[in-house]
Specification:
The structure holds 2 protein chains of 2 kinds. Chain A is 0% helix and 53% strand. Chain A is mainly beta. In chain A, strand 10 and strand 11 form a beta hairpin. The radius of gyration of chain A is 13 Å and the shape is globular. Chain B has no helices and 11 strands. Chain B is globular, with a radius of gyration of 13 Å. The chains are: A mainly beta, B mainly beta. At the A-B interface, strand 6 and strand 11 of A face strand 5, strand 9 and strand 10 of B.
Chain lengths: 111, 115
């Protein structure tokens, strides 16, 4: 069946470091891909999305490109801030509403 | 906009009792609401989907008699864990969708501990 694999955390970086969180997926057909972020004590927020191959989603300095050839959707940010500390979830949308989530990657950014 | 709340945020109950968790869409009408369960260091797993005014659709392996879902209005869905047991302890997250658009808005989650 469809699945999402994320790199395990936690990931600890210094402020202004480059961030990559890997995400690969397995799916039949052509799913939409998402990154959600969960700050402490809050719900999941949509960070960015891509609906077809080669699309690049971007928001708040974060980017991810839908790579069909490598079935990947890696999240990147050029310079992280302390305020980016959160848990990041990669997800795919199979069908009209069924999300499949990765296990989440905790990011901790140190000042 | 598109804010979803859950209540309570944390609940502790004794084994054998029932507990109700509320999910509300605060600034939009949610035709569809979803309930997820998240175990420590694991993915969110969809439990069920509910449409306003109709019976919930449960995912395979989820006991519908144990996890009662009601979606009586366009802004409120409830999940009742009946006869709770320690293995039901988990983080429960709801989400809501306004229409046939697939984007879901997530609540902050409810941590249930059954002693």
């Amino acid at each position: 069946g469809d699945s999402v694999t994320q790199m395990e955390g936690p990931v600890t970086l210094s402020e202004e470091a480059f961030l990559t969180i890997n995400c690969t997926y397995t799916a039949t057909g052509y799913p939409s891909l998402f990154w959600y972020v969960q700050y402490p004590g809050e719900g999941l927020q949509l960070l960015l999305k891509a609906t077809k191959a080669d699309d690049k989603g971007s928001n708040k300095g974060f980017e991810a490109t839908y790579r069909k050839e490598t079935t990947s959707f890696h999240l990147e940010k050029g310079s992280v801030q302390v305020s980016d500390s959160a848990v990041y979830f990669c997800a795919l949308l199979a069908g009209t509403y069924k999300y499949i989530f990765g296990t989440g990657t905790r990011l901790k950014v140190l000042a | 906009g598109a804010v979803v709340s859950q209540h309570p945020s944390r609940v502790i109950c004794k084994s054998g009792t029932s507990v109700k968790i509320e999910c509300r869409s605060l600034d939009f009408q949610a035709t569809t609401m979803f309930w997820y369960r998240q175990f420590p260091k694991q993915s969110l797993m969809l439990m069920a989907t509910s449409n306003e005014g109709s019976k919930a659709t449960y995912e395979q392996g989820v006991e519908k008699d144990k996890f009662l879902i009601n979606h009586a209005s366009l802004t409120l869905s409830t999940l009742t864990v009946t006869s709770a047991h320690p293995e039901d302890s988990s983080f429960y997250i709801c989400s809501a969708s306004q229409d046939s658009n697939y984007e879901q808005y997530f609540g902050p989650g409810t941590r249930l501990t059954v002693t």
